[in-house]
Amino acid sequence: MEQNPYQASEAATHYGGSSTKSVLSLRTVGIVLIVVVGVTAGYLAVRVPWEMAVTSGIAKKNMVDEMRPVSLLLLSLTGFVLGILAPRLFWLGAVSELAAFPVIAFWEIYHDPTSHNLWPIEFIMYGFLTIPGLVAGVVGSGIHRGVRYMLGRSALPIFP
């Protein structure tokens, strides 16, 4: 009988210990890691191409208004990689890809209340910009599960 590594083992509970805490913390660490990777990769996917456009003199305004098409490709690539690495939680990484931008917008609104007059529309736009990462995450998750199925194993995610 195959034992699920995410369940408390009989030996751990027999000696007075409980593996529930370690399993919970492992899952929590995995979720936090997915969110951190998503936020960091999403911010860099938008920031780096914009910085390159600014240094070449193409863009001048701000990184969201003058988002480069390669940013959407990088957001999709991040969602795809997260779909392969964490097929059950790819959506969390894809949604967190643009999570830094509302935080930045609120920070700017706090310091200058006239800076984001149309912030509700801006936040809806951030929601739409998560779609490429979500679609690519579904594809990556499907590829992960398909490969595992073809190898004769059940889909075992890296992050549960």
One letter per element, helices H and strands E, the order comes to HHHHHHH
Count of individual helical segments: 7
Number of discrete domains = 1
Low-pLDDT stretches: none
Q: How many distinct beta strands?
A: 0
Report how far apart the termini are. 21 Å
Mean pLDDT: 80
Shape: globular
Structural class: mainly alpha
- Summarize the main sheet: none
Short description:
With 160 residues, the chain is mainly alpha-helical. The chain has 7 helices and no strands. The chain has helices spanning 10-14, 20-55, 69-85, 90-96, 100-111, 119-129, 131-150.
Summarize the topology:
Elements: H1 10-14, H2 20-55, H3 69-85, H4 90-96, H5 100-111, H6 119-129, H7 131-150
Helix pairs in contact: 2-3, 2-4, 3-4, 3-7, 4-7
Walk me through this protein's architecture:
Helices cover 68% and strands 0% of the residues. With 160 residues, it is mostly helical. Helix 3 packs antiparallel against helix 4 (90-96) and helix 4 packs antiparallel against helix 7 (131-150). The longest helix has 36 residues, at 20-55. It is globular. It starts with 9 loop residues before the first helix and ends in a 10-residue tail after the last helix.
